[in-house]
Amino acid sequence: MEELNALMQGFAVVLTPLNIGLMFVGIILGVLIGVLPGLGGANGVAILLPLTFSMSPTSAIVMLSCIYWGALFGGAITSILFNIPGEPWSVATTFDGYPLAQKGKAGQALTAAFTSSFVGAFVAVLMITFLAPLVAKFALKFGAPEFFAVYLLTFCSFVGMGKGSPFKILIAMAFGFALAAVGMDTVTGQLRLTFGQSELMRGFDFLIAVIGLFGIGEILLSMEEGLEFSGKSARINPKVVWETWKELPRYWATSVRSSLVGIWMGITPGGATPASFMSYGLAKKFSKTGSKFGTGEVEGVIAPETAAHAAGTSALLPMLALGIPGSPTAAVLLGGLLIWGLQPGPLLFVEQKDFVWGLIASMYLGNLVGLIVVLTTVPLFASILRIPFSIIAPVIIVICAIGAYTVHGAMLDIWFMLGFGVIGYVFKKLDYPLAPLVLALVLGDKAEDSFRQAMLVSQGDLGIMWSNPLVGSITTLALLMLCWPLISRLLATMRAPKVDELAAQRPVD
Amino acid sequence: MTDKKSSDPAGSPVLVKNCSVDTVVAAIMFVIGAVVVFEARNLGAGWTSDGPGAGYFPFYIGLIICISALGVAWQARSPKTRDEDAFVDREQFGRVLSVLLPATVYVLAIWILGIYVASALYIALFMIVLGKYPPLKSVVVAVVVNAVFFMMFEVWFKVPLYKGMLEPLRLLGY
CA A390, CA A202: separation in Å to the nearest integer? Predict the structure, then answer.
């Protein structure tokens, strides 16, 4: 068991007092980010990234990934107590979580949510432990065409699995690619799309985009509603936790199913949000008490939370093994790796063993620490939500501005952040998805490089994308995904239309 | 967040509908796409002696933007798929501007006063003007929040922030 040995070594790397301390700091900051409107996993990690510049890569990634776990946990608190999803993936948690809180069973709902989050993440980490090295080993044989095919698959999956207009998904994606192209061309050294402005030579950093799109955009959206929080109070005592835990094994089938849904949606760039909805829908269909879903069923909390956490965790697998992130937050973590001088991708498993296995070990520990922290500190975080929005809003804008500035120490970036905020607000309102935009901005240069290399090898012949069975099948699958909206429409006209009852509530991620 | 948009159907007058904004955004995107295509052609979108030119990839990206923008515009205009829901009504628009305009002034202020001073002023004024808090409380909150940021960035994590023309703590070495 080579993996187990490596994992044990990873634990040895992570288990220093400093790293354990950073874990707690990260989880607490993460829950805070998850609870506050306008700060989410992606932009929260982006803002806090500069804080880690002076740390060793392992300590830094331990803290950042713990912020991520914390944000995943935090989303559940607001959905259950306040009926406000702190994160898009916790929308499905409100369906049964808030009714439970109204019935006075908030403690039970929160315990169930946190525990199933933990279970989902745990199953996903187990999967990463054993699958990631295999994927990386396999990917070591990849050449430029294979890598481009995987990029193509990533982006085409957004079109195939996304909700809403495929044109809008394409625009969001291509806009990201266009922004990524601004600046110095990595191959020829020519300046592209800078229009003679030397400030644009650096190009657009995706961290700035993430902070603006998700942070400022979200604040503008929340402000529009004139938000006034009115929530249920919650106390979690050991008795409630124990009672709920005794009940949970009954729902093992839901947990297993939701974990699998989450893992699948996380590895393919479906993301945590569709995963949580899909698993809620499935749980409703298969449960004996399915008709009571929506009125406060514990099972209706377990299903989306397990899936969201499993998806959020497994999104790190393609990031680690291939260098292709499965979600905006994974993209930010990938950006962090680059800043610390680590090249994500299959070679990471060979050259940076300590780092990779330290990260995987910290996923186990981080989620355990997270579970303990959230179970003990819920009342504290719930009270943060009672701080009026007119204090929270300016503070969050200040945090975003500081975050944008610290990335490069450039004043212009703060203006860009504001601009991206407006774009984020308009795009969110018109149902343009933001995840493809961010991923295209991150991966733009690399996707282009692998495309050019492939074209160089073949002297401009696109046939190289089908030159061997592996690259051929990935490319074909990608094109199938791209055309999926058309194909599914054709299929739908042949069959009776099926009503997707959750479609209306599902946010575009 | 999409499900909350129609919260007050009988509220203040609708300023613009989704389909109009959709068309405008599509038009802007089309222009952006066209600019990208044009620039890419200038850079050399074809095959150069040593492989694809610098404009090769952006050229097709620009093309995708243009075509998709036409698609969105068509969807927004065609009677079957057009979205007549309100994009924003007057009250909402006012609320959004009440955050966006001060934020713009704030970014301008950062430029001159530096992050800490501008942030303290911004938080205090936001609380007094929009939140209707007593001035003393607002100032205390603003100063405390910025003191925490200062400790966090300058002292604990050693990341210096932009101080503009004012450097009140230069004497202390920050």
Answer: 35
Could you tell me if residue B158 is left (phi over 0), alpha (psi between -120 and 50 degrees) or otherwise beta? left
Question: What are the φ and ψ backbone dihedral angles of B48, each rounded to 5 degrees?
Answer: -95, 180
**Angle of CA points A157, A484, A508, to nearest 5°:** 55
Is the dihedral angle over the CA atoms B34, B39, B40, B42 positive or is it negative?
A: positive
CB pairs under 8 A between A and B: 183
Q: B42: nearest CA in chain A?
A: A192
- Who's near A372: CB < 8 A, 6+ residues apart? none
User: Locate tokens 């409380």: which residue?
Assistant: B137
Cβ distance B157 to A171 less than 8 Å, yes or no, reads: no
Domain range list for chain A: 2-493+500-505
Cβ distance A171 to B22 less than 8 Å, yes or no, reads no
The answer to whether A429 contacts B21, with C-beta atoms less than 8 Å apart, is yes
Q: Which residue of A has its CA nearest to B83?
A: A430
User: Is A394 within 8 Å of B127 when comparing Cβ atoms?
Assistant: yes
Contact B20/B73 with Cβ under 8 angstroms?
no
CA of A260 vs chain B CAs: smallest distance (Å):
27
| B71, closest residue in chain A (CA to CA) | A167
Per-residue pLDDT of chain A (509 residues; tens, 9 = 90+): 678 888 888 888 888 899 899 999 999 988 888 887 777 778 888 888 887 877 888 888 888 889 888 888 888 888 888 777 767 777 888 888 888 888 888 888 889 999 999 999 999 999 999 898 888 888 888 888 888 888 888 888 888 877 778 899 999 999 999 999 888 887 777 888 878 787 788 888 888 998 898 888 888 888 877 655 555 666 677 888 888 888 888 888 888 999 998 888 888 766 677 788 888 888 888 888 878 888 888 888 999 999 988 988 888 888 888 888 877 888 888 888 888 888 888 888 888 888 888 888 988 999 999 998 988 888 787 777 777 778 888 888 998 998 888 888 888 899 999 999 999 999 988 889 888 898 888 888 888 888 888 888 888 788 888 888 888 988 998 899 888 888 888 888 877 555 555 555 666 65
Strand blocks (E) in A346-488: none
Q: Is B61:A182 a contact under the CB 8 Å cutoff?
A: no
Concatenated DSSP letters of B37-79: HHHHHHH--SEETTEE-TTHHHHHHHHHHHHHHHHHHHHHHST
Contacts of A390 in chain B (CB under 8 A): 126-127, 130-131, 133
ipTM score for this prediction: 0.87
Show the tokens assigned to A259: 């974990």
B 2-41: CB under 8 A from A: 2-5, 7, 18, 21-22, 25, 29, 32-33, 35-36, 39-40
A287: phi then psi, degrees, rounded to nearest 5: -75, 150
Which candidate, A364, A353, A469, A281, places its Cα nearest to that of A62?
Answer: A364
**Partners of residue A397 in chain B, C-beta under 8 Å:** 99, 103, 106, 122
A193·B36 Cβ contact <8 A = yes
For A394, which of B95, B96, B123 is closest by C-beta distance? B123
Rounded CA separation B154/B116 (Å): 11
B151 φ, ψ to 5°? -60, -45
